[in-house]
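<context>
A single protein, sequence plus fold
<entry> Chain with its tokenised backbone below
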Amino acid sequence: MPAKEVLERVYGESEKSGERFQYLAERFAENFGDAKAEFFTSPGRTEMIGNHTDHNGGKIVAASISLDTIGAAAPNNTGNVRIRSEGYDLIDVEIASASSVEKKSGTRALIAGMIEAIGRFGYAIEGFDAYVTTEVIAAAGVSSSASFEMLFCAMVNSLFNDNKIPLGDCARIGQYAENNFWMKSSGLMDQMACAAGGAILLDFANDIKCEKINVSFDALGYDMVIVNTGKGHGDLSEEYSAVPAEMFQVAEALGVKRLCESSLEEFLKKMPEITTVINNDRAIMRALHFFEENRRVEEAAEALAKGDGKAVLSLLTQSGNSSWKWLQNCMSKSNEKDQKVALTLALTELYLDKIKDGCCRIHGGGFAGVILAVVPKDKTDGYVDYISGFVGRENVYPMQIRQTGAVSLGY
């Protein structure tokens, strides 16, 4: 079991978290015997600002959150990775044949992809057993998949690599698995935010630059509240893929590979010509979102570092409006009558207007899933009660930024 002081450092308490890890230890023993297990944690993530910019070399302020995925793991000396996730059947992947695992076959494909990537990146992996359970909302924009991927990397890093795999490579391992085994065109933001811990400013223009931001919404007098609007985004891959594809289309028309290699001024100067070439107004709008979102990210990072809560709220509101109007990822064109994200945002705006404080915005990839509300601490309970009347209390998650990323908690 993780030591009491370790749990208190990560979770701020040791009673509830201790019960979770005791349960985890018991489930590991039931499934894999009495091997001495090491314990791990990997948080979910919130994207505060920087919606859909990473793939074009943009900037993002993201943070790990208090919802996490935890696991117990131990070497098994079999040459196979065997993982049992709570509520699911055992997945058994032979390391030597991981590359032949069928693509798009769910978690099995994801594990196989990470095994292959770890070898390609020059790191060691041997057979191990793991039992995993999670609080991170699945298919709803808080990166349950990236949380699992970074938990897997933390296990491999500690068990077989003396914790020498850097965060950037852990993120790339998760991305490789999603791109090549899930066939999903994901960026690196989700993985980096889960791996690093705390609030971070990410810059994807040249490789990955990650800068810590010393910030807490608690210190600013606010709580973050994630609201699951009631529909996941597992069937919306085409809509997600269209966002980077259209931005790349505009970048090509600008004569560059990614939008980060150009500027808003250059784009506006060439827009009449570009509009004729690509004949896609939505792509133009999404490129405008990219340039303005990058500016907002820089301003938000500075405001967060200064503790300027008023400026932060204003910038998050502007970002949410841009995502809705310019990026256009608050509803799905495949089912225009299903607008749970937009409806939940509207209901939240009514509440925030009444209390004259806070902000809200789409969270994560969008189109479906969750929203983020930032609410004054003395109004959080009231907002939770209010929005629960529309989406159910089980779909409302007050939380704070968590300072610990994906790590081993010891034995």
Summary: The mean pLDDT is 93. The first helix runs from residue 4 to 11. The CA atoms of residues 140 and 369 lie 4 Å apart. The first strand starts at residue 38 and ends at 49.
